[in-house]
Amino acid sequence: VISHKFKLVYIHISKTAGSFITNVLKELDTDAVEILDCKDTPLSGHLRLHHVQQLDIYEDIKSYCFFASIRNPIRRCVSAYNYVRGLEGHFLYPKIKNKSFYEAARAFNYHTSGKMVDYLKDISGKINKDIKLLICTDALSADLIEFLGDVGVPKKSLRRLKKKSIFRNASNKFFDEDIDVSKLDFSDFSTEDLLFYLSKVN
After folding, report:
1. Choice between 73 and 107, residue whose per-residue pLDDT is larger
2. Pair 105, 184: CB distance under 8 Å
């Protein structure tokens, strides 16, 4: 999502509350542009940084503030599992329809939506350290308001946002799933993602 008004570029990593954040940005800036696809995009609506760098408009936006939301990789996997279980047409549905989360985790490890860190890598394949990160927690709505204020969105705009139905009705229950850690096989998860997430929350 690109907001010329606020000079923001949001990298939408799948299953990190990105739809909510995208809708909030569109409420703040009705002219915000959501680019759904470009060459080699593995998942519609989820352009990675190196995809954005190949857009014709990149020279015009490269000075903007780039940001992304990240999420505990295990919680992200749970979210994907619950999402796919409700979509019989999804290509992963046959692999997980009769499996518990613990049994299905490996299928999501190889999901085409990819690792979080892959969204943050530039054309050279290195993680761009200039991308600001919003860490998804139970207090996502409040955290998002604070984050947007920190990256330059005017307080007046944020005050109006708080009154919008999209914001007032937002659920903060992004992490209400119960997980028995003893049942997890951590080899089913990306070590790179786990270490990256832990480095950002500690």
Report:
1. 73
2. yes
